[in-house]
Amino acid sequence: MTHRAALRAPRALHALRALRALAWLALAGSTASASADDGGLKVSRRLAPSSLAQELNLQPGRPLPVAPASTQPLELNEAVRQAVARHPSISDAISTLAQQAGGVDVARAGYYPQVRVGVGGGSSNAPASQGGSTGTVATASVSQMLYDFGKVDGAVAQSEALVRRQQAGILKQIDTVAQQAADAVVTAHRYQALLAIAQEQVQAVEKVLETARLRANAGISTRADPIQAESRVDSARANLLQVKSQLAQWRERLGTLLGPGVPPQIAPLPSSLSDGLAGTFRADGPPDTSLLPDVLAAEAERRAASAQLEIARANRYPTLSVDASVNKAMGGINPATLERNGTYHTVMLNLTSVIYQGGALDAQVRAASAAEEAARMRIETARLNAGDQARNFREQVIGAQARLGVLADRRRSIVEARDLYREQYTLGTRSILDLLNAEQEIYQAAAEQEAVLHDLWASRVGYIGATGQARAFYGLDNTTVQGMELLP
What we know:
Blueprint: H1 3-44, H2 49-56, H3 76-86, H4 88-108, E1 114-123, E2 133-147, H5 151-217, H6 224-258, H7 272-275, H8 293-314, E3 319-330, E4 333-334, E5 339-340, E6 343-352, H9 360-427, H10 432-466, H11 470-473, E7 479-481, E8 484-486
Antiparallel strand pairs: 1-2, 2-3, 3-6, 4-5, 7-8
Helix pairs in contact: 3-5, 4-5, 5-6, 5-8, 5-10, 8-9, 9-10
């Protein structure tokens, strides 16, 4: 082995040891990093609502407005007015409108001059005889856009379109809450009517039970008759409890929408629910959808997309502006004039334009054109859906009206048969099962008739909402809802 080879061997050994040490350090660092990542991952996967609420400093919700307690039966229109006067989703939409209106002011600021002031300091290469240091320099500048080929106009138009979209969103939210309140009133009234029918059924079957007991005690009939009648009484009472439970659930739903203190009775549904819509159920064409909130919102989105397209096209052209600035050294050398406490001012006419952005300008134009076309299709979709819903509700109304007449005739005939069976049972020529079955048939016919009647009202309420007549029908036009004035 040569002398040079002998010298290189220890060096190679030292290098190998150094590489091993670096590898161990890298492995330890990666292990520590993995441990830290695992620790962070474990923390992010812990959910503690109490800790989260404490970190967010969540405050108790403020109480919602509550209508004065009343013992008068609850009217449909009054229920709708109370619901829209207190629902927080409408307040949310109104606050969002104020946010969007602020965006219009931000966009319009582009028409006005931009004024900037500042103070800075640094060093200068001025000769030492002149002071050397610049000290503090105060600067003021003014920039006024003169012409930009419609950039600011487009931004203002886009912001105004977003305001219009949010206004349509408020209308939609009001209509949604009104629809929820009207549906709750109709359904609560349904179970209120079914409760009265169920109570009548219990009383009727109890009368049959009383008659059966009298006949059994007198030995005219067997003891089986009272047992069969008791079974029907228990069934009628169970049905009564079920209807009471459903009525209580819908009264709680009304309490959520209207607040505590819902009147104990729901007033009869207004005759205007049918009379006022007599001229709207036509088969000669689709309903007018031009005033629907969804259509208005989609049109506002189309205008916003159109404004964005104008902005994208205007970005291809330059912007002309006038800029004026002045700076003054405060106790030092002005770097522009190299004078102590010197002042320097400029007035410039600038023409700025983007020459190349890697195709971004063309891509923005294509994207804005596609957004406008998509918004136009959303308008047609909103019209199509509204027309489909309106026709569906109209057919439901027509079908329910046709069924009501048949059900009324059925109920009358069953009542006549029940009266006849009652006389025949008293005379002993008819079994108690015939009489009990007749009472059950009367209940079913009355309940079905009431259900179809309320289906008819529910379909009319749905038609009112689908055709955009809710605010006019429930008397919300020319009123103020949560600070927002509603006009036709």
